[in-house]
Amino acid sequence: MNAKEFCSCTDHKCPFNPINHDKGCDLCISKCLKLNEIPSCFFKKISTERPENEDYTFKGFADFTVKHWNKN
Fold it and tell me: What letter does residue 16 receive in the DSSP assignment?
């Protein structure tokens, strides 16, 4: 399975989305690490809902997990 088949990100306009290049998830993960964020695919594993206020930070992910974990 290649990254284009694996990636659950629906932001196809994002230049870091694997659908737009041949470097897999590396560009997205590098960007997120520089911004101290978690990639959206981690959020989507827990819930299809988007994080409140588009908060993709580590704390935002922890809060999102607490809110949505028991719904699975």
Answer: T
CA distance 66 to 28: 24
For the whole model, what pTM was predicted? 0.83
pLDDT at position 1 over 70: no
Q: What pLDDT digit, counting tens, does each position of 18-39 carry?
A: 999 999 999 999 999 999 999 9
The token duo for 17 is: 């989305």
Q: Which helix (H) or strand (E) holds 66?
A: helix 58-68
Tokens of 16: 């870091």
Please answer whether residues 7 and 18 qualify as being in contact, where contact means their C-beta atoms are separated by less than 8 angstroms: yes
Q: Amino acid letter at 19? A: I
